[in-house]
Amino acid sequence: MKKIAACWLVVIMLLFAGVSSLTAASSPPVVGGTLPDITLPAPKDSVGKNYLDLGFFGFGTFKIPEIKAKVVIIEIFSMYCPYCQREAPNVNELYAKIEQDPALKGKIKIIGIGAGNTSYEVGTFKNKYNVPFPLFADGDYVIHKIVGEVRTPYFIGVKLNPDGTNRVIYSKLGALGGVDDFLSTLIKLSELR
Amino acid sequence: MKRHGRHFLFVLLAGMSLLIFVYAPVSQAAFGLSDAFKNNIYNPGLLKPTDSVLKLKVGDRAPNFALKAVSGETVSLRQYRGKKNVVISFVPAAWTPVCSDQWPGYNIVKDIFDKHDAILLGISVDNIPTLFSWTNQMGNLWFPVLSDFWPHGKVASMYGVLRADGVAERALIVIDKKGIIRYIDVHDINKRPPLEDLVKELEKLK
């Protein structure tokens, strides 16, 4: 009888573990919290590789805090999302402004994750809008689930600390608004200046 | 001991079915992604992947049809004969998750269609006013959106892609300039067909 009770207990505990981990993933990253674990394939092209400057992690897969930067902006987008299409030139402009500013270049980096998009679809979006920063496919919505199944476009800003920890400083649905305003907000939030 | 084993199996199965029950609605939220549609997307939940019997096959002549477009004109399949390859994209319904995230993608790849001398015809069984409001959220679409509303689903039924509940399947049909069907993909209604599959078929056309 005791054995049966033990079996029940194990199964129920396993169930709750499964369900609670799912519930945890069903909310977007919270400002002040830590970025959930996201594994991405290292870019194969030299432009993407040099930009992220993954060093030792430059082959195989990497995790976002391994990007050499002080702040990483993650855009969750989809090739199929009209707002993401409309937003694409603004995010490109943001990239350009960062790259043109010697105080920011190399410190703030941008990546995009195509929720439900195959590599081909992400590539189509990249070509269509001449996206200069690396985009990653998330064909099976695996990452999309990790970040709480947000609608798109969704922007997450993460501050990477020298001790290897990180802190979410921005987490918001919808367009960036003015690129200059967004950038100064981000600089303020990350205490870069 | 045998009884314990059976008991454990029962508990395990019950646990697994509960897990599936809990997982299903979570994964559903993955669709209807774009913020362009805000909270206006009705989620029908997980549906039977396909629910119709095709009446045509690759190699058959595509039956002609004439349907009213959202723009007001009437578009017939015949008008493209000898001029353009035609891709028909049947979608189940306006304001539903996957459909809302399908045509906006086609909207940015006009160049791919042009390269293969193809036109896209979007067809749904919704009426014109509904299609008007819905497609307005997608920006300016470069391809005609046709209403197969009345007689209800006549064209979808003619092609064998009308489901038992009166909506169309999520189907892609490629018709060449001679009017011959070259590709049919009656896709799982719950999923979006990957763009590369369609492009591969377009590349096969001469």
Report on this model:
- Chain A has 193 residues and is α/β, with parallel strands linked by helices.
- Chain A contains 6 helices and 7 strands; from the N terminus they run αβαββαβαβαββα.
- In chain A, the strands form 2 sheets. In chain A, strands 5-4-3-6-7 form a 5-stranded mixed sheet. Chain A has a two-stranded antiparallel ribbon with strand order 1-2.
- Chain A is globular.
- Chain A starts with a helix and ends with a helix.
- The longest helix of chain B is centred in the N-terminal third of the chain and has 27 residues, at 2-28.
- In chain B, a hairpin with a 4-residue loop joins β1 (66-69) and β2 (74-76).
- Chain B is built from 7 helices and 7 strands; from the N terminus they run αβββαααβαβαββα.
- Chain B has 2 domains: 1-30; 46-204, 3-Layer(aba) Sandwich (Glutaredoxin).
- A 7-stranded mixed sheet of chain B has the order 2-1-5-4-3-6-7.
- Chain B is 32% helix and 17% strand.
- Chain B starts with a helix and ends with a helix.
- Classes of the chains: A alpha/beta (193), B alpha/beta (206).
- The A-B interface holds A 3-4, 7-8, 11-12, 14-15, 18-19, 22, 26, 78-86, 115-116, 118, 120-121, 124-125, 128, 139, 141, 144-145, 149, 151-153, 173-174 and B 4, 7-8, 11-12, 15, 18-19, 22-23, 26-27, 29-31, 33-36, 101-102, 104-105, 107-109, 137-139, 192, 194-196, 199.
